[in-house]
Design brief:
By secondary structure, the protein is an alpha+beta fold. It contains 15 helices and 17 strands. Helix 9 crosses helix 11. The relative contact order is 0.13.
């Protein structure tokens, strides 16, 4: 798609609003705030606490410089650190101060921060329509819950990747909504499978309303660590346009997209880039292909600054933003004034170039952690390219892990490895698929005609790993709640004789990661009997 020089405006998508969203009205108390700023106004209307009674006189926060080298975990010296100061009263009109940021404010969020983020979104993610708007929120988990209350009616179906973030299920499952999993490959959600699901809907779900919302984590997908390339995003977008689907782009990992991984005996240290180089290579968002305004992007500072800030922002068309604003006025009012003030001061101090440099260095740090974990797996198993050594093993992509001591020359193309994984293209997680047919205990469960031998075996393996003092997240946590109510592996039509675990490389240091992988391999060697 060639983007015209003069971008179009978003189309009217108000028919997607549910009855709750359509019936919301502006908070009359918030309307009064607009009049309070008028010169000469004496307000006896608002129940605002007097700022002289706030116990905070001044806020001083020491922060890293934007170009801090983050790969090696060295905290910048005090001399290198910057100090952000927020006085109780602004020294000049329009400057940020504690009196204003600690007071009840407009539910859109701090104007200075919204303006900064609007420019950043335009420059970096380049939405393909002109009138996108920004609304601050309290983190993507809360933001997604608001979107569910905006678009979904009780009993609706919702499209998701076949494995997805478990907390994303929470807002819609209690409402009786039902998940529809869409298959993934090494490049994320498959446009062809999305087309299949939607084109066959009247046959597979006669008399039931087709899904109208796709929830996706396109970059650094949780749990799989996959990232959609631009052409895949474009294809998915056009399928959604064809069937009038709203795309919810959950983007906390968008700035943590990695360069290609190669199997090496030692972890490769990423080569540093400038902020401008990073911007040019940064993975894109669905916003880039959205010329109708059918994408709601959820962005967050949880992975780029700190999760405890509980701060993020929506990017969406004006109709959706206005309805989300009405909900915010009566549900959460506004994000924390402290968080907005500190983040705003930080971003204005760093500037856009500085923030991009910070993101580039941050990406390098997590990319190195990915490389450390992958190299640890290659050290404990025999790690080989799946397309060369496991080409006849169904669904085996990326790197195949064989028992230590295996001679690659003896491997047959249909010989299942112990496990395989697609090297994470972003995010914080490694999604490892285990091939259970080689484990004697799994075959016992099959012979005994266990109702769900895959789930039973993976439960036993998880317990064995925990007993060996290594904790992983079970893959079953990420299975989309079945619209049919069927829960076993075979009933769901899931791939047989495989199971998954999610490995996180975001927190532990190299020594801990390598020891953790050693313990995993120790358990695997006992269960697979090698």
């Amino acid at each position: 798609m060639t983007v015209p020089l003069e971008l179009p405006k978003a189309i009217d998508l108000s028919h997607h609003l549910n009855s709750i969203a359509r019936n919301r009205f502006a908070s009359p108390l918030k309307d009064i705030l607009n009049y309070m700023a008028q010169p000469g106004m004496i307000s006896l209307a608002g129940g605002l606490p007097h700022p002289s009674l706030f116990p905070f006189a001044e806020a001083n926060v020491s922060v890293y410089p934007a170009n801090a080298d983050l790969k090696h975990g060295v905290v910048p010296s005090v001399d290198e650190q910057l100090t952000l100061t927020i006085p109780k009263t602004a020294p000049v009109k329009g400057a940020l101060d504690l009196n204003s940021v600690q007071q009840y404010g407009h539910s859109l969020g701090l104007p200075e921060l919204r303006a900064w983020l609007h420019q950043f979104t335009r420059d970096v993610f380049s939405p393909a329509y002109s009138n996108f708007e920004i609304l601050l929120h309290e983190g993507n988990t809360a933001a997604w819950a608001k979107v569910c209350r905006l678009l979904l009616d009780a009993g609706d179906y919702i499209l998701l990747e076949e494995f997805s973030f478990p907390s994303s299920f929470g807002p819609w499952v209690p409402e009786g909504c039902k998940g529809v999993p869409v298959k993934m490959d090494a490049h994320g959600l498959r446009a062809d499978d999305l087309e299949r699901v939607l084109s066959e809907w009247e046959t597979t779900h006669p008399g039931e309303r087709r899904p109208r919302v796709l929830y996706t984590i396109p970059q650094g997908q949780n749990p799989a660590g996959l990232s959609m390339p631009g052409d895949r995003m474009r294809d998915v977008y056009e399928v959604c346009r064809k069937y009038d689907i709203i795309i919810v782009d959950d983007g906390p990992y968008s700035c943590l997209t990695f360069r290609e991984f190669e199997i090496t005996p030692e972890p490769v240290v990423p080569v540093a880039e400038t902020g401008e180089q990073f911007r040019k290579t940064l993975a894109t968002s669905f916003l880039k292909y959205d010329y109708e305004g059918r994408v709601i992007r959820l962005d967050s500072f949880s992975k780029t600054l700190a999760p405890g800030s509980r701060l993020g922002y929506f990017v969406a068309n004006p109709i959706f933003i206005e309805r989300l604003l009405r909900a915010t006025e009566v549900e959460s009012q506004t994000p924390s004034g402290w968080s907005m003030a500190i983040v705003s001061q930080l971003l204005h101090t760093w500037g856009q170039d500085g923030y991009l440099q910070w993101l580039s260095n941050l990406r390098d740090s997590y990319e190195l952690r990915r490389n450390i974990m992958c190299a640890a797996l290659a050290k404990r198993f025999v790690a080989l390219p799946a397309d060369k050594y496991a080409s006849a093993v169904p669904g085996c992509e990326g790197v195949a892990l064989y028992p230590r001591g295996t001679d690659p020359a003896t491997i047959k193309p249909d010989q299942a490895p112990v496990a395989s994984f697609v090297p994470p293209a972003g995010g914080m997680f490694l999604w490892i698929k285990f091939y259970l047919s080689g484990a004697p205990r799994f075959r016992e469960l099959q012979t005994a005609q266990h109702e769900d031998p895959e789930n039973a075996f993976m439960g036993e393996m998880w317990k064995a790993l925990a007993d060996n003092l290594v904790l992983l997240t079970p893959g079953s946590y990420y299975v989309v709640p079945a619209s049919s109510g069927k829960a076993t592996t075979s009933q769901r039509g899931a791939e047989p004789a495989v199971g998954h675990f999610r490995f996180a490389f975001s927190y532990n240091d190299r020594v801990e990661m390598e020891e953790g992988i050693r313990r995993v391999e120790e358990v695997a060697s006992k269960l697979w009997g090698y």
